[in-house]
Design brief:
Oligomer: single chain
Radius of gyration: 24 Å
Helix content: over 70%
Number of helices: 14
Distance between the termini: 6 Å
Order of helices and strands: HHHHHHHHHHHHHH
């Protein structure tokens, strides 16, 4: 197990290096630059010197040199650089938005599993019934409906019909935990419902496969109650593919949080990245992508390490 973990961690370094290079170079190829994004008022000022401003921001050198300075700061000083727009350290900006994004993602995963697990299990053990067809229909609708469209409808129609809209003013958890939950619950419910659709279908499929195994038929023949057979023999073995799916859903959750945070005015990392893209703030965009990529790889590693605990037959050498 230890050797496997070391190999996986060592593979993270070249993967992140290639990813950061692609992201940094891609952002630099977007038409315009940060000086253009600062606005015409800056360029209309008397004595405006574009060349001097480029030197101050470090944009007077080729893009590969800019990337080398940025990646060198990570390895040599442990810093992600400073925002070209506000001169604030990137890690400070990330610390400000990370609790919002983590709270949104955690609630979305909890809601998604709370919906998918019981519906998927019940749909499998009642295969062919009305409940099974209803659960599968809901899952297909959930997969086919974009979460950003649902978010816009949730904001639009309640305001038109009843004069009500979800709270859009951010409330920190330390100031008012219930108020914080009130702000996050609807965005999390939208994201969680979307994630639950594919998870529920996977649970149903793996449950049906396990229910046909010989050891499950043996458990039934012993006269065990349905709850004991399902929870003690079926669910645990059916969860291995589900754990993989939940780990693979993290990039989808990241992409969804970027959109949802902007729709619901949440000051998270996703909104920070969109603002930085509009301003061509290269260090912030690269820092956010590096953080997201590191988080995805860490979750995937943790997912792989959970397999031996779910299935003792699996061993990592």
């Amino acid at each position: 197990m230890r050797a496997y973990v070391i190999r996986r961690v060592l593979l993270v370094i070249p993967t992140l290096s290639i990813l950061t290079m692609v992201v940094f170079l891609s952002v630099s190829l977007i038409p315009g630059d940060i000086i253009d994004a600062m606005g015409a008022d800056l360029q209309d000022q008397r004595g405006f010197d574009r060349a001097a401003l480029e030197r101050r921001l470090g944009l007077d050198v080729p893009v590969p040199v800019q990337y080398g300075r940025w990646i060198g700061g990570i390895f040599l000083r442990g810093t992600l650089g400073e925002s070209l727009w506000s001169d604030s350290p990137v890690e400070e900006l990330l610390r400000g938005g990370l609790p919002v994004t983590l709270g949104l993602g955690f609630l979305a995963i909890v809601i998604g599993l709370a919906i998918a697990l019981p519906v998927g299990i019940f749909s499998a053990i009642r295969q062919g019934t009305f409940t099974d067809y209803a659960g599968r229909s809901v899952a297909i609708i959930g997969l086919a409906t974009p979460n950003f469209w649902i978010a816009v409808m949730v904001l639009l129609y309640p305001a038109i019909w009843w004069g009500w809209s979800p709270p859009l003013q951010w409330v920190p958890f330390t100031d008012d935990p219930l108020g914080n939950l009130g702000v996050l619950i609807i965005p999390s419910l939208i994201l969680g419902t979307y994630l639950s659709a594919s998870t529920m279908r996977m649970i149903r499929t793996t449950m049906l496969e396990v229910l046909r195994q010989d050891y499950v038929r043996t458990a039934w023949s012993k006269g065990l109650r349905e709850r004991a057979v399902v929870m003690g023999h079926v669910v645990k073995n059916a969860l291995i593919p589900v754990v993989s799916l939940v780990g693979l859903q993290l990039p989808i959750l990241v992409g969804g949080s970027v959109i949802i945070e902007n729709i619901f005015n949440l000051p998270g990392v996703g909104r920070l990245m969109v603002d930085a893209l509009g301003r061509r703030d290269y260090p912030v965009v690269s820092g956010v992508n590096l953080m997201f990529a590191t988080g995805v790889m860490a979750i995937n590693l943790a997912t792989d390490l959970m397999y031996p605990y779910l299935d003792p037959r699996l061993r990592y050498e």
